[in-house]
Amino acid sequence: MARRTIQKYRCFKGHRRSISRKKSHSSTNFGQRNYSLYVNRVLKEVVPQRGMSYRTLDFMNTLINDIFDRIAEEAHHLMHFRRRCTLTPEDIQKAVYMLLPEKLAKYAVTFGSEAVHRFVSS
Length: 122
Prior knowledge:
Shape: globular
Oligomer: single chain
Number of strands: 2
CATH superfamily of the domain at 53-122: Histone, subunit A
Radius of gyration: 20 Å
CATH architecture of the domain at 53-122: Orthogonal Bundle
Strand content: under 5%
CATH topology of the domain at 53-122: Histone, subunit A
Structural class: mainly alpha
Largest sheet: 2 strands, antiparallel
GO molecular function: DNA binding; protein heterodimerization activity; structural constituent of chromatin
CATH class of the domain at 53-122: Mainly Alpha
Number of helices: 4
Pfam families: Histone (PF00125)
């Protein structure tokens, strides 16, 4: 009986991966982060007497994951457009400016840069 061969395809810069992989049950939610705890902490910091329902927290978590995925995908496209192998902060900032409205993008980039600077300096 002939063995079935696994077809290969080329990824970026000649890396190879198999087309079909057996998925384990533990990897079904891989990549989806849960930000409910952080959303609750920020809410309690801003308005201590208010809370959020589980459905609202779930919606906020979905929204954050969706925005994160969109920014990452757009930054990836910019990286490929520039023919670079490394994702730079400039790619992420340009992706934010392309996806978000002007004023919101300006605040997001400013606060994000400040947070990264504080993290690096500590």
